């Protein structure tokens, strides 16, 4: 079907998604290549992904965007199909991707008006010409088809593979080969005492069942094969619901000690899964933190947070909100996403780290595979309970899918713009030396307030935009060509240290504070969205379970996405179902 493409007005069935990808490859053969995975799913389906790019070469950055890991999360696969269509049409026509003004009605409250928003054609041109973009809209076709056609089991999460005891399905986002056997990683007794549950379930009857073995599922192996063989630098797994943007790690707090990593036998069965300062840490026990370096030149932790913040800001812009404006607006109140590290975003509501998640598996490739460049991995949790949770309404009004679709476009294109414009980092997941070496030598400690402020300006203020990141990378290359030798010399000469401290570093920091302001935190506070149970925990009393039937009279959403197709009438629970997740409502990583 050639463009223009109709709006998606009902959830696409699994085969419709495959047909849409095949159509894109046929309609844009010079720009879009479709690859079908080699192995059928448990119910005999095939699924595929597309590569969108004009050009090739060994030094092009690559991004992989995935949706449909969990069956009941309707919007992400449809939004990713729409994203692929919009990028290809915009690139070939040279026109902006335009989202018209819209009115969205939450389940409770007054309608909210959003003005038109657009993705400039110049940004699309950069993405298509400078980047290898891989889009896998639907990882779990069997599960999606089941959720769309079986009203007796609304809210199906897993795939449909047969399991022990006559049970069906594995939670694909607990099946990846990254601390899959969490009992070999954590001090399980401590974890259970702190969080009241496990990072994943070992029972085939549970929504978060991890499977009989790591990557036991066809769908998991397909995604792992892409992450293992393609030179992916940026990864996003799109889920719902919760309005959260999560960056790695999700299995533990991030740390600086390279000896603390998930494969280190010295820490087997003793990792605490606790945030720094948690009183639950036994006396005398070292607080374990999973290694994720923030040293130059990669600055993985800082960049991960800054890219997530760029995604957050673009979502606000798509709602007509200036991210820098302090005033709250109605649009902001309904479009504000929370940015945070996956492992502890849900700590305020009782959630802890998770195991076997796709974003952590993606992040781990830079350490597990030789000569791999840094990978920035994210879980994007879209939608909200006020937009019918997992089963957003595709009708207009209320316009829930239109809003979520716009937010996914905003977040993903923000990530892709960074990927297309930032210099490709060199291979090697580890970092280099220290931070501000000369300032550290002169002031005596890397955590001196002036050193921390200078690092903040460089790593957070300057790197807040793609252009600033390029400037910072150039400055790093120049600075680290001479600063280690200067720092070593200063450490041996006390008077020189004093002169540099009094005559250079402190006046410089004071002047910068005067003109640029104090240190500030770039991301929103780390709190979970209201109404959603924490990862790995069951829903609180009064929250409907996914096993409950749909509202009376709801027709099955089996219609195609052709223009004018009536939307599904199913409603979602007002609060998250059991099984927690790192996607704001599910246990672990969107997740």
TrEMBL record:
Active-site residues (renumbered): 381 (proton donor/acceptor)
Region described as Disordered: spans on this chain: 517-591
Low complexity bias: start-end ranges: 544-576
Any one of the GO BP annotations: proteolysis
Cofactor: Zn(2+)
NCBIfam families: CFI_box_CTERM
Pfam family, one: Peptidase_M14
PANTHER family, per the entry: PROTEASE FAMILY M14 CARBOXYPEPTIDASE A,B, SLL0236 PROTEIN
Listed transmembrane segments: none
Protein's recorded name: Zinc carboxypeptidase
UniProt keyword annotations, A-Z: Carboxypeptidase, Hydrolase, Metalloprotease, Protease, Zinc
Family note: Belongs to the peptidase M14 family.
Domain Peptidase M14: 10-419
Organism name: Micromonospora citrea
SMART domains in the record: Zn_pept
Lineage: superkingdom: Bacteria
GO molecular function: metallocarboxypeptidase activity; zinc ion binding
InterPro entries according to UniProt: CFI_box_CTERM_dom (IPR049886), Peptidase_M14 (IPR000834)
GO CC annotation, single: extracellular space
